[in-house]
Design brief:
The complex is a heterodimer of chains A (about 260) and B (about 260). With about 260 residues, chain A is an all-alpha fold. Chain A is built from eleven helices and no strands. Helices cover about 75% and strands about 0% of the residues of chain A. Chain A starts with a helix and ends with a helix. Chain B is about 75% helix and about 0% strand. Chain B has a two-stranded antiparallel ribbon. Chain B is an all-alpha fold and about 260 residues long. In chain B, helix 3 crosses helix 8. Classes of the chains: A mainly alpha (about 260), B mainly alpha (about 260). The interface of A and B includes residues 24 and 27 of A.
């Protein structure tokens, strides 16, 4: 527990040095929401999607993305490429735990300083009519989604053991997640064939499903969704663990 | 004589091949990611037009034309000026001073360093798109010759923004870094200006002239009337003016930075 608090504080304070970076992030989110506001205002005049639904979806999506632990993959990849991973391996706490605890600290910082600002902006923009349904269900699914996000990111980070790449694989991760998770557009807007593929993959649990739960427009049975998500989480976690153990063995054999 | 040249050619070819093969897996992943990203942005516009037939009077092909204009101006900026975004980082780490040691203008040095391979992909994508749009819209006017000029003007406007924001770094020692937001402004340029409300239209025409990167130049091809021709032609002096202002501000800030005894 003590380890957790120390690393959490580390992560939290590491971002507080760069308060302007938070400013850039906030501006970036606001610009994006602003553009989408006008575009969808126009589109919703001619379709049966309600504007408030679209706006709420976009605002929630930006809020979620502002404090999702997305930098953990590049942190791990950097450690591997620079060789610092040796120091992390020598410590009495597992590498994953180190990274996860620190990342939770940075997420807390991002939530307080970035997400809440964006939420405030979103509330004003929607004239305080942001669609909101249930919080308790959302928290449950969100905990699973964040864990899944961490595992997927760590998976891409562990790839660095095999490809010694940072930028390439990180870009690939960002694009894949943004396309398949519904972070840019609601997934029900995708054409039928693509929707079928997307529904099988686990990425929709990162953005699409939690947002639908908080807005109250989810069509699936809640417990069924939780079970499917949990299974996916376990699968990803075990693949991650497996790849990591092989990689670490290789590193120690090579005299690292 | 002929044998010599053939020999040289084989040597050059082998060297070039080796340099290409040096590009490791990471680079290939990055290129795939960039192509996917360009596709995702394009995909969004496709999805919008699955739902509706036109956006405030602009149909699918016209939107594609606008989108390709934005992509090309931004791609040009990416190819030549992308390192201006790194200036605040250089100033913060102190690395910037190495540009000041050389007798050449620091901004020119940074431009030369900028030569980035990934910008070319965007450019090629934009060029293919605009050719398709022009064919689909059946635009056959002599004004098409103005297109490269408009693209350069768009590039100058993005450059003036990034240079202006990075000049601020001289005052804040690189702590306030707004240059990443330059790419955000491209989001606005993708859609016709008439989608936004009056206040935003004014801001993006006169304060942060994003509208001149793609929208106003497009008017001469898509909405041909006297007033619009004027608007399109104004792009040229506006872009030069803004670039000149940013350029001056940059040099002014640089002098201030120097005199602070760095």
């Amino acid at each position: 527990m003590k380890q957790f608090l120390i690393l959490f504080k580390c992560g939290f304070l590491s971002l507080s040095r760069y308060i302007e970076a938070s400013l850039v992030n906030i501006i970036n989110s606001l610009i994006f929401i602003f553009v989408q506001y006008f575009v969808w205002l126009e589109i919703c005049k001619h379709t049966d999607y309600t504007f408030l639904q679209m706006l709420s979806y976009i605002i929630y999506s930006r809020i979620l993305s502002s404090f999702y632990p997305s930098s953990i993959s590049s942190k791990l990849a950097h450690k591997i490429k620079s060789g610092d991973i040796c120091f992390s391996l020598l410590k009495p706490i597992s590498v994953f735990k180190q990274l996860v605890y620190e990342e939770l600290g940075t997420c807390a910082y991002k939530f307080i300083f970035i997400s809440l600002s964006v939420l405030l902006f979103g509330l004003f923009l929607s004239h305080f009519q942001l669609m909101f349904y249930s919080f308790d269900k959302f928290i449950i699914i969100y905990v699973l989604s964040v864990s899944m996000f961490m595992c997927i990111n760590l998976l891409f980070g562990v790839m660095a053991f095999y490809t010694t790449s940072i930028w390439g694989i990180n870009s690939l991760k960002t694009v894949i997640i943004s396309l398949l998770s519904g972070s840019i557009l609601p997934l029900n807007l995708y054409p039928e064939k693509i929707r079928n593929i997307v529904n099988i993959l686990p990425f929709r649990y990162l953005y699409s499903e939690p947002i639908k739960i908080i807005m109250g427009i989810s069509t699936e049975c809640f417990s069924q969704m939780l079970i499917t998500e949990l299974i996916w989480l376990l699968v990803i976690f075990f693949v991650l663990k497996f790849l990591y153990l092989i990689a670490v063995k290789r590193v120690t054999i090579l005299g690292g | 004589m002929k044998n010599n040249y053939f020999f040289l050619f084989r040597k050059y070819f082998r060297t070039n091949l080796k340099s290409v093969m040096n590009y490791d897996l990471d680079f290939i992943f990055g290129i795939i990611a960039m192509l996917l990203k360009a596709f995702v942005n394009f995909f969004i516009i496709l999805l919008i037009f699955e739902l509706i037939d036109d956006v405030k009077g602009w149909n699918y092909h016209e939107m594609l034309f606008l989108y390709s204009m934005t992509t090309i101006s931004y791609g040009l900026w990416h190819c030549f000026f992308i390192d201006t975004v790194t200036i605040p980082t250089y100033v913060k780490s102190g690395e910037f001073d190495r540009f000041l040691l050389k007798p050449i203008d620091p901004l020119f040095q940074i431009m030369m360093e900028s030569f980035d391979e990934d910008g070319w992909g965007e450019l090629v994508f934009g060029l293919i798109l605009i050719i398709i749009s022009v064919i689909n819209l059946k635009i056959i006017t002599p004004f098409l010759l103005l297109l490269p000029l408009f693209w350069i003007c768009g590039m100058l406007i993005y450059a003036s923004l990034s240079i202006f924001f990075s000049s601020i770094a001289f005052y804040t020692v690189g702590c306030v870094d707004l240059t990443d937001n330059v790419s955000d402004f491209q989001e606005f340029a993708k859609y016709p200006l008439i989608v936004f409300n009056k206040g935003i239209r004014i801001i993006f025409s006169f304060v942060i002239p994003i509208a001149f990167t793609a929208f106003y130049p497009s008017l001469i091809f898509l909405r041909f009337d006297f007033f619009n021709i004027l608007l399109s032609i104004i792009t040229i002096p506006v872009s030069i003016l803004f670039f000149f202002i940013s350029w001056k501000f940059w040099h002014y800030s640089l002098r201030k930075y120097n005199s602070n005894g760095s």
